[in-house]
Structure formats: C-alpha cells, structure tokens
Amino acid sequence: MPIKRDAKKIVYTSEQEMPQMPMSQGSMLWNKTGSWRNIRPEIDLGKCNQCGICWKFCPDMSIVIENEFPAVDYDFCKGCGICAEECPTKCIVMVEERK
Amino acid sequence: MSKEKKMRLTLPEEELVGSGNLACQGCGANLALRYVLKAFGKRTAICIPACCWAVIDGAFPHSCLGIPVYHCAFETAASTATGVKAGLEMVGDTETQVIAWAGDGGTFDIGIQALSGTAERNDDILYVCYDNEAYMNTGIQRSSATPLGAWTTTTPVKFPKDRPKKDIDAIMAAHRIPYQATASIAYPEDLYKKALKAKNTRGTKFIHIYAPCPTGWKSRPEDTVKLARLAVQTCLFPLYEVEHGEKYTLNIKVQNKKPIEEYIKLQGRYRHLKPEAAAAIQEGIDRDWERLLKKVNAG
Is the pLDDT of residue B1 over 60? Predict the structure, then answer.
C-alpha cells in the first residue's frame, strides 16, 4: 500500500479561534474522496511497462509511484476510470467496488 | 518485471495540487492546473475568480493547493492578478509569478474587460483560461464559449445554441501580447512546455486550455482525455502559439483530420443533433482551420 496521506479537519468552536484574515490553514487531505467511487481500478503489475501514463493523467493525484511502479491510493481515487482507458498495455481494469 | 527499470515520467514529480479536492470524477480542469503548476513551481501566487476552481480548491480554512490562493470577484481575475503582482514588486519580490486562473465564463464573457485592460498595459502576469464551454460551476448555463449546436440548461434541446464559439485567441492576438498559446490536457508535455515558456516571458501571457467536463458535456468520466485528444485531431481545437500577435506556430500538424462525428457521438450534449447540424459544425471547423493555416503560413 502507498504511504498514507492524511490531515486533520480544522473546526472552529468559537469566533475567537478564527484567524483574523480568511487564509488557508490546512490541506484538503482530510476529505477522503475514495467514498465517491463505485468502480475501482486494479493494476496488474505483471503487464505494466512503467510508461507513467496513468500517473500523468490521474486528475486526483491518486496514482502514486512506489518502487518505480504505479500504485493506487484508494483513499482518494474517485473511480473516474481515465487510467484504465488510457493505459497502453491495458493492465488496469475497473472492477465493482466491494463493501 | 524488472525492479531496476525506472518509471518513464515526462513531467516533474512534484505535486502542488493536492488530493481530496472537490472536483467531479474525471475533471479536466483539475488536470490543467496540475500541469501548469508543475511548470511554475512553488514560487507562484494564483488568483481565482468564481469558477469551478473556486470550489475544487476546498472551503475555508482548507485549500488543496500548495501555493497562495486569492479568491476574487468574477470579473476581476486579471486586474486582481495585476494588483498582486504590483504589490509584490513594491516589496521587492520580482521572482514570484502571478497567475490569473479563470474559467471560460470569467474570460469570454464576464472578465473580458479586465483581461483586455491587463493585456493593453502589458502587466507581467499569466492569464489562463481553462475552457469547459459553459458555466459548469453554476449548473451548465450557456456562455459565449459554448460551441454551435450544444445543449446547456439555458439552450435546451429544442433551441440549441445557434451561434458559434467566440474566437478568444484572435481577440488576444489583436492585443499584441508577447506570448499566447492554446493547449489541451490530452497533450501534457506540450502544455508543460508552453507554461514554462510563459514563465520565462515578461509581459502578459495568455494560455487557453481545453478542459473537458464530464458533468456538463454528459460524457463518461473516463473519456475526458480522449475527448480532449479528439478535439485536437478533428481540428476543432488546434494547438498553436502566437508571439506578439503576429508569429503563429502550429504545434500539432494534423495530417488526417478525423470527422467531427467521432467527437460528437461521445457526448450527451450533442445527442439531439441532426446530421445536417453536424455537417454545419464540420463546415465551421474546416473554415476556421483554413483561416488558421493562412495565418501560420503568413507569419
């Protein structure tokens, strides 16, 4: 599994805690967009030729490079299927999401 | 499966657009900013008016971008970016680049006077229009970037859009800005190269990025990149650069133009289209392509 990326959701309980200027305080990594998905990509690394096309076209930055091979971060993958569509060796298949 | 072989990456690995953002599945606009920021790097500030990216970025106090973001009013993307740049120069920072990042509504319709003013003053910013051909963020209303014959919620099936898309690139070329280009998310290396060139040019730069929207175009999310590629291959959206409004360079010379039907049949917004209407679209594309070739051959 890829390295876990995580962040805490910032919640203010009172007005005093709010910063004086409306500026960004943290990243959106608390928002696990993986729950939007109903099909999931699965990579067969045996057929992978390491072209990097899936990584390049992933709109959610959820294909990460691990030991010089692509891996899917299922916490954030929204299941759009661009990686499976664009893969030249067709080593990525979209399968039904399991509960 | 040899462990020694390296992944062949054609773009830098650093990501400034984070995961967990609020883009729809298969969003083209998300890819567009990802590639531009790969070229621009961390020393960049970005001004975002009301557009899809104002939402994708995330709600206060969170932001998925690794750079400062300034959310501004709909019509002021270019003038806000000018102001941010002027402010940075006042405190002696000449290195930080400023990007105005607007959708097609904020560029073609609402933001055009601010953009025109910035281009006329030749302020040192990059203006990027990511073009998804309607006001997608507010619920798919017609904009002047919507192509001929397309369905939107304000141009329903019985009355599809009867006017062609506004030629924003010709408008910007008429401003004689140092550098402008059209780019597509299906050609990331080309887009990256153009963003790098814009980074190293002083003066107003304009990049028009074609970013398909599965939600508004009623296409399958996995077809996003395919649609952007077909738009280039059918000559609907040719990739070219213009320097000082005169020197046109064609980046992808399409030899065998694909018929527009291939592009149309993948999208639900064209489902009502009759064959005659498709022929009219094809005619418009052929005419625009000939016109562009004339400009390329002249300069």
Answer: no
Whether residue A50 and residue B224 make contact (CB cut-off 8 A), yes or no, is: no
Residue A97: pLDDT band (50, 70, 90) is confident
Is residue B12 assigned to a domain?
A: no
* Contact criterion met (CB < 8 Å) for B25 and A80: yes
Question: For B174, which DSSP code?
Answer: T
pLDDT digits (tens, 9 = 90+) for A57-95: 999 999 999 888 999 999 999 999 999 999 999 999 999
Nearest residue of A to residue B35, measured between CA atoms: A56
CATH number of the domain that residue B183 is part of? 3.40.50.970
Residue B293 lies in a domain: yes
Rounded-to-integer distance, Cα B236 and Cα A68, Å: 37
Query: What is the count of structural domains for chain B?
Result: 1
A34: which chain B residues are within 8 Å (Cβ-Cβ)? none
Q: Do A26 and B18 touch (CB under 8 A)?
A: no
Containing structural domain, residue B50: 28-298
Sign of CA dihedral B96, B30, B188, A62: positive
The token duo for A42 is 């699965």
Fold of domain A33-96: Alpha-Beta Plaits (3.30.70)
Residue A20 confidence (pLDDT):
84
- By Cβ distance, the residue of B20, B221, B222 closest to A30 is B20
Q: What is the mean pLDDT of chain B?
A: 93
The whole-model pTM stands at 0.93
Buried b / exposed e over B9-42, threshold 16 CB at 10 Å, is eebeeeebbbbbbbbbbbbbbbbbbbbbbbbbee
What are the chain A neighbours of B27 within 8 Å (beta carbons)?
A: 59
Residue B4 placed within a domain: no
Q: Is residue B1 part of a domain?
A: no
